[in-house]
UniProtKB/TrEMBL annotation:
TM segment ranges: none
Basic and acidic residues bias: start-end ranges: 138-165
Region (Disordered): 138-199
Pfam families linked: PK_Tyr_Ser-Thr
PROSITE patterns, A to Z: PROTEIN_KINASE_DOM
Keywords recorded for this protein, A-Z: Kinase, Transferase
Domain Protein kinase: 1-135
Organism field: Entamoeba histolytica KU27
Biased composition (Polar residues): 189-199
Protein name: Protein tyrosine kinase domain containing protein
GO molecular function, one term: ATP binding
Keyword field contains Transferase: yes
Xref: InterPro entries: Kinase-like_dom_sf, Prot_kinase_dom, Ser-Thr/Tyr_kinase_cat_dom, TKL_Ser/Thr_kinase
């Protein structure tokens, strides 16, 4: 069982892997587990449906389904195409898998993790290494995008300030010119007045 929660929509999501003691009934022997009519079809590896022995690679398959479900944000199996558990079991048992969109950053990991042959699936340690690499890559890209956005906004602000300063300079120049012209008119008017008085 995987419990997924977040305190608010803006916080990162936290996932907790749990086992209440009733999710499995097994006899552990030499690193393998015998299962007796247990499991949720959506997450069950094909070897379980064949009633073969379960290994950690069976959990890797289940983890692949969980990753796809988290990426999609919904049940990965469309109920219109898979109306019941039997339809899912037949689909998986035939070696078929759900389509994973090319824009899914987990596509490569998911497709390796749900390989039909258990021995061809990666270990959880290998999965962890790949997931850490993806996290670092997306985290670095996010920081870079944020930096570029802030730089762009800063450039726009500086350009706007320069435009305003240019307008102020033009306005000041025009005002000075008008003042000089006004003073000139006053001088001319004064001179004309004096000439009239003298006459």
């Amino acid at each position: 069982n995987v419990l997924v929660y977040s305190k608010n929509p803006h916080d990162p999501i936290t996932a907790k892997v749990t086992d209440f003691g009733t999710s499995r009934s097994f006899i552990e022997s030499s690193g393998k587990i015998e299962l007796q009519n247990i499991g949720t079809p959506v997450y069950m590896a094909p070897e379980i449906t064949r009633k073969d022995q379960m290994t950690l690679k069976s959990d890797v398959y289940s983890f692949a389904i969980c990753m796809l479900e988290i990426w999609l944000g919904r049940d990965p199996y469309d109920p219109m195409k898979f109306p019941d558990s039997e339809s899912i079991l037949r689909f998986v048992g035939a070696g078929k898998r759900l389509h994973v969109s090319t824009d899914c950053i987990l596509k490569g990991i998911i497709e390796k993790a749900w390989n039909h042959k258990p021995s061809d699936r990666p270990t959880f340690k290998e999965l962890g290494t790949e997931l850490e690499a993806i996290y670092k890559k997306t985290s670095d890209k996010s920081k870079s995008d944020s930096h570029n956005k802030n730089h762009s906004e800063s450039t726009k602000t500086n350009t706007k300030s320069k435009d305003i300063s240019s307008s102020e300079i033009k306005l000041t120049t025009n005002t000075t010119t008008n003042t000089v012209e006004d003073q000139g008119e006053s001088i001319e008017a004064s001179a004309s007045s004096q000439m009239v008085d003298n006459n």
